[in-house]
Design goal:
Layout: H1 11-25, E1 30-35, H2 48-52, E2 57-63, E3 66-71, E4 75-80, E5 86-90, H3 92-97, H4 103-109, E6 117-123, E7 128-132, E8 139-144, H5 168-175, H6 182-187, H7 197-206, H8 220-250, E9 254-255, E10 281-286, E11 289-294
Antiparallel strand pairs: 1-6, 2-3, 3-4, 4-8, 5-7, 5-9, 6-7, 10-11
Helix pairs in contact: 1-8, 5-8, 7-8
The chain binds a DNA duplex through loops.
DNA sequence: CTTACGGCCTGTACGC
DNA sequence: TGCGTACAGGCCGTAA
């Protein structure tokens, strides 16, 4: 298994993590929660372990790039993977096989460095879920379970891109009047939730729109095409994550990243993949971040 | 109000 | 070979 380290956790990766964790967590109690350090990117909530221990995970949800675990205690555990965050699942079954004397088993067992195991959840029934995050850009918060969606940052967050509420009309309205670029606008979680650098680049390429274009200049028709492109790239990536999930479940149980072929991201200098386009992918810098585009077919 | 930017963090890639 | 530096990037606080 080769991990594509360029692949950051955006909506499809977080959804894949959610689908991997849900069968382990939903309906089960957290027997013990150990924070191996007091902070991730931010300090963990006061009395973090005590507030989680003994409570049941009623449901594991996702909003944008956040995981939201609704707890029987009346609180919601909100987790963000940052850039390098992963969850690893150990069950009594794969704990037994992890020591198997096959060449792959040892390599898989070292997919994450235990030094960066920051939070460990012991789950009713013998499972263990570990949050591992070398760069520590991830964070966890607690919010009232009944009102988490009205707490920051969810109160200002744009629509879920895969929901029916997100279409050309909604996107056009969100972009109307914006003087910034399409690239910056789509990265703004208040416009649409869950996109990061990779899928913004991919969606703009699919919609044949330049990341340099002023966001507020988009026609309704083009906003519709862009919304459809966003849905398309996310759905395909989630499908790819689903297949990687099956691989992971049989390997080391590490959830967070998966192999996926991109049309433009990190393909600087390579041929445009659009049918009939003779252009090449170039890398430019916008707002201090890399954008990848084909200047032959994106306007 | 909107937009822009620095800082956070560490593993990896690269140049000398 | 080893050391130093740049880079990756989501989010948040601050500034313009």
């Amino acid at each position: 298994m080769r991990f594509n380290l360029a692949s950051m956790p955006e909506l499809p990766e977080v959804e894949t993590v959610r689908r991997g964790l849900a069968p382990v967590l939903e309906g089960r109690r957290l027997l013990a929660v150990k924070a191996r350090r007091p902070d991730l990117r931010f300090p963990l909530p006061e009395r973090f372990s005590e507030r989680l221990a003994g409570t049941r995970v009623e449901r594991l949800d996702r909003r944008g790039k956040y995981l939201v675990a609704l707890l029987g205690s009346g609180e919601a555990l909100i987790a963000h993977l940052g850039m390098s965050g992963r969850f690893t699942i150990e069950t009594p079954e794969n704990a037994e096989t992890s020591g198997a004397e096959t060449p792959g088993a040892f390599a898989r067992a070292r997919a994450t460095d235990p030094a960066h195991d920051h939070v460990v959840f012991d789950v009713e029934g013998g499972g263990r879920v570990t949050f591992n995050d070398p760069r520590r850009f991830g964070f966890m918060r607690l919010a009232p379970a009944a009102h988490w969606a009205e707490t920051p940052p969810f109160d200002a967050m744009g629509p879920e891109p895969l929901s029916d509420a997100f279409d050309g009309r909604a996107l056009g309205a969100a972009l109307a009047g914006k003087t910034t670029t399409l690239k910056a606008a789509l990265l703004d979680q208040r416009v649409v939730a869950g996109l990061g650098n990779i899928y913004v680049n991919e969606a703009l390429h699919r919609a044949r729109l330049s990341p340099l274009r002023q966001a507020g200049t988009l026609s309704r028709a083009r906003a519709g095409l862009l919304a459809a492109a966003i849905k398309g790239v996310l759905e395909e990536a989630i499908a790819a994550g689903g297949s990687s999930l099956r691989d992971h479940a049989q390997a080391d149980g590490s959830l967070g990243y998966f192999q996926h072929a991109f049309d433009v991201y990190d393909r600087d200098g390579e041929a445009c993949r659009r049918e009939g386009c003779k252009g090449a992918v170039v890398r430019i810098t916008q707002n201090g971040r890399s954008s990848f585009l084909c200047q032959a077919c994106q306007r």
